[in-house]
Amino acid sequence: MALLIDQDASRFRQIVRGKIKQNLKKYMSNGELIGKQGKDLVSIPIPQIDLPHFRFGDPRDGVGQGEGEVGTSLGPGRPGNGTGKAGDQPGAHILEVEVSLQELAEILGEELALPRIQPKSKNNVEGETSRYTSLRRVGPNSLRHFKRTYREALKRQLSSGVYSWERPNIVPIRDDMRYRSWKTYPRPDSNAVILYMMDVSGSMTQQRKELVRMTAFWIDTWLRAHYKNLTSRYIVHDANAHEVDAETFYHVRENGGTKISSAYEFCKKIIEREYGDGAANLYGFHFSDGENFNSEDDNRCLNLLTEALLPQMNLFGYGQVASGYGAYFLGTLSRIHDEKLVTAHIGDPDDIFDAIKTFLGKGA
Fold this sequence. Notes:
By secondary structure, the chain is an alpha/beta fold. It folds into three domains: 2-51 and 93-112, no CATH class; 127-186, no CATH class; 190-360, von Willebrand factor, type A domain (Rossmann fold). Helix content is 35%, strand content 22%. It has eleven helices and ten strands. The strands form three sheets. A six-stranded mixed β-sheet has the order 7-6-5-8-9-10. The chain is elongated and about 90 Å long. The two termini are 46 Å apart.
């Protein structure tokens, strides 16, 4: 019975996984998903899954009860309490399931064909991981290997001559039982730091910040699947830059001008002061509507990127959210030819899917 339950649960997880992959782009553009995030789990609504269930009724009123004639309906309708005209379409079945962030990252990587990240940390700390790669004769029922147990029982019955080809009946005994066993392997546990930077000048509306928030969620989800220790730092800027917490990062709005180099200068100082030993894998992501102060500051940003930031980082991504004015910074960055620099345009939630593939498809 326990084995059948495990098999049913496994099949259900495969169904859920398939539904998530089918609707992944929709989930990635849905800000409500982030609001349903727990410590290690995300609650996702899965539509159109029919759930089997028992339906209880009056045992005195049903099939096989009382006298009847050929052609008598087996399911007489009963008056209901609803109002309005009856419909002829089935209702949608929506089930909320909890998916771990690790599994969500795996689905993201499979659907977007993202490469596995190879950490470049120089000071990796050795950890341990367990893998089920062998079998043994003792163990809990939850680890029982059905196929190997069945095979051992079949071999025993064939060799002893008790197997009947006309009435095959395989009944494992204690000596036939096989259980999965694990081995422990060393695993490098690397540290990673994400330095998020965002323009919070007057032109950055709350809607544009929501695009940044959803994009950052998927970046975090993917990188956390590859690094045991992930730290996120948040830098906001208008004409000046300073560090804030995550809540402030996504909700603060200022009315000053835009000087992007202030953020890059601040980022450079953090790296020099706290991560100059090269022990951490550094990722930088900057989001803006592309309206910089002037061309002189554009050139200053190019110098900071090529000389200070890109040499220290695994990856630097620039995401330009929709702007109603002239925005040229995305074009300015096209003058840098470095595989560590990736850029994407995020005009609306539907662009997040392609932006994540652009940012993380480069690997690390």
